[in-house]
Amino acid sequence: MKFRIVFVLVLLMGGFAANAQTADEILAKYFANTGGIEKWKALKSWTQKGKAWQGQEFPMSMYAKTPNKMKLVINVQGTELVAQAYDGTTAWMLNPFAGGKDPVKMDDEMAKEIKDEEFEEEFIDYKKKGHEVTLEGTEEIDGVKCYKIKLVKNKNNPKDDATELHFFDAENFVPIMQVSYVKVGPQKGTEVKTYMSDYQEVNGLMFPFSMEQKVDGKTIFKANTETMTINDITDDSIFAFPKK
């Protein structure tokens, strides 16, 4: 969100531009500029491969499939670490470096945020999903004017609602930053800022190939996608909690 006689005029024009837009119009432009709403609705799975950084850089693979299956695998010196996974029923992880060779199920608190996530873009049919979306004006993010959209998930269920802020580039109408809050654990309530950049086309849809998460201005995680394929996962066993 960008930029008195001159400064005052610019601010007035900026305010007029914000009022001229509605949240739904901004979301419509977002979907139109990134491939079209019908293509987004047709998206059923994806596979990402690249590098993840958390103190050190490691090869990473990310798998996701409708309605909410996911798996994040990080390769550490030839050893696979399943940072988190969900097969639709069980949330689990595998960390050989923590002294365990077998996968373990996450407890209910740890698993909640993973289970609550849906594969489909949250702004698609958001009213039917029980979410509320409002335009909160404009704001500047790292020198880029953005529309600030507030998303309240599960608005009618206070026990399970969650508030996020999404910042859409006012020129290209793509999200470049998101603010969310940790919902469980000792860090509950902590603000997490996620930055998205390097948008690239994959089979007609635009995805950010670079993601960085920050807490209190410090980077806690980064991921850079090198290759990505969509609608490619037919075997759900990749997500399943391994049986002994």
Distance between the termini: 53 Å
Beta-strand level of the residues, as a percent range? over 45%
In the CATH hierarchy, what is the architecture at level 2? Clam
Q: Sheet bearing the most strands, described?
A: 13 strands, antiparallel
- The CATH superfamily title: Lipoprotein localisation LolA/LolB/LppX
List the total number of helices: 4
Q: What is the fold-level CATH name, i.e. the topology? A: outer membrane lipoprotein receptor (LolB), chain A
Task: Look at the structure and give the CATH class.
Answer: Mainly Beta
The beta-strand count equals 13
**Helical proportion, percent range:** 10-25%
Stretches where pLDDT is under 50 for at least 5 consecutive residues are: 1-20
**How are the strands of the biggest sheet laid out side by side?**
6-5-4-3-2-1-13-12-11-10-9-8-7
Following the backbone from N to C, one meets helices and strands in this order, namely HHHEEEEEEHEEEEEEE
**CA gyration radius, whole angstroms:** 19 Å
Task: Characterize the structure shown.
The chain is α+β, with helices and mostly antiparallel strands and 244 residues long. The protein has one domain (6-239): Lipoprotein localisation LolA/LolB/LppX (outer membrane lipoprotein receptor (LolB), chain A). 16% of the residues lie in helices and 45% in strands. It is built from four helices and 13 strands. A 13-stranded antiparallel β-sheet has the order 6-5-4-3-2-1-13-12-11-10-9-8-7. β11 and β12 form a beta hairpin. The protein is globular and about 55 Å long. The termini are far apart. Mean pLDDT is 88; it is low at 1-20.
